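Consider a protein example.
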Amino acid sequence: MESQKPLVDRKVIVDLLYGDEDYISEFAVASVESFSEFKVQFEKSLKKRDMENLRRAGHKIKPVAQMMKLEAVITMYETSKIMLEEGAADESIKNMVAKMNEYCTQLIKELKQLQ
């Protein structure tokens, strides 16, 4: 079994901060807060099939996810919108929520290590 590649690329964050490593901890704290909030809102919105709140949660997290090159978050978010539009089965919704929760939990764990 191959080892899992970290989700957080420290160099990407340093580059976002124009090379100033003094702010990595602050960035990590803010990101933990943002992704924690997103994880909760994503789950609530998807389970309730609430497209408006799902979009609101996605619009808040999408820029930072793009900056951090976290394509998986964006892909899962975009897929979840399609799932709601197409009336996906409850089991599919549940699986997407679990997948996003697992991803965000790992992401938050890695970000906390940068604090």
Remarks:
- The two ends are 30 Å apart (CA to CA).
- Residues 42 and 54 are 6 Å apart (CA to CA).
